[in-house]
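Appendix B, Record 12. Input sequence as logged:
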Amino acid sequence: MSEEARQRKKTTPEQTESKETPTPTDTNADHTSSSSCGVCCKIFGVLIAVVIVVLYIIPCPIDPVAVQISEVPPEIPRAEITKHITSPETLKLLGAESFVVHEATGYVYTGLMNGAIARFKLDLTGVEFLLRTSDVDINDEYCNQIKTPEEKCGRPLGMRQLDDNHLLVLDTYLGIVKINIVELTKEVVLDFSKAKTDKPIMFGDDLVILPDRNTVYFTDVSYKYRVHDFLYEFAEQRLRGRLFKFILDTGELLEVANELCFANGIELHRDGVSLLVTETSRVRILRYNLADGKIEMFAENLIATPDNIRRSPRGGYLVGMGSMRTPPYVTDFIAAHPIINTIAFKLFTKDTIINLVSPKESLFVRLGEDGEMLDFYCDENAEHIRYVSHAEEYGGYIYVGSFVYPHLIKIPV
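Logged structural output:
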């Protein structure tokens, strides 16, 4: 018998078994690893349960509904129609929401975040602060320092020229105010707090005066929220917007359309028999027939959220735009899944959410008489302005304002 065979023969069963059986150390390691994994899973499960309970307990300030905005925005030949905003002239004025160019005097009028009505020359010089829409003095230190709208100070939004000496200004808190720009006096011609309507006018926004200079149409964004809570109204996507008709000489007020979604800017169509009304959170513009009150679509599935709308001397309509819709279309996805909004508003403040969704690209557009895209004005990195609310064209230039930004800009057509 060979030496190798004798060695195999000497190997005992106990020795063979000991080679196949794990050592006590290995067994303990596996047990410890399994126990640690179990503990981690339990902790993770407890954390998830705690988060769910906390999210359930924390009150949510909004009650959103699911809305399918539309398909992906249509492709635009941006290379052909884009006009880049690169080196604009600027003027430091906070929240220049809307403009009126007063041809006879050569001044541009605007309403500011602090409730003031201001004017400046066409070359952006000679700024004057005239008065407030509220009863607070124009030199009031508190109102002059605010960064967000407050009812005490007033917040002028829509603005139109009534005649050579007067403007009509819609103060979202107060009502429609007639301002004498010569004597610097004011008169509240429609007090929202006293208006006899089924639901209160909480968020009046923009207005337009018909050629008779007596008939006024204006929008109300919401009968629930005020302007300082605009983000709540935007996120909820509910049909609280309305369109009103107001007669200056008689004071007659009539609700002519309701169940609109964030009814914002308004303009008289060039046909003279219809109005254009922007629905900001639904990214579309409606056309309201003055004769029969019927509403049809003018432009939908827009590339961004529309704000004020004004005629362009070149034809068509300039539309201020807020948040750009770009891939992966996060805002559209959130609108269709309200649980995301609910969680976000439970965890973060309005200001935080605004900063999170702050546009990376600012723009306004010119649409044709049938809603087609004609021009696309773009500030690609939002370096010069954000949240464009208004674009007013005069004398080969466009004055561009924002409802929250601390500057307005002026660019060539």
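The longest strand covers residues 156-163.
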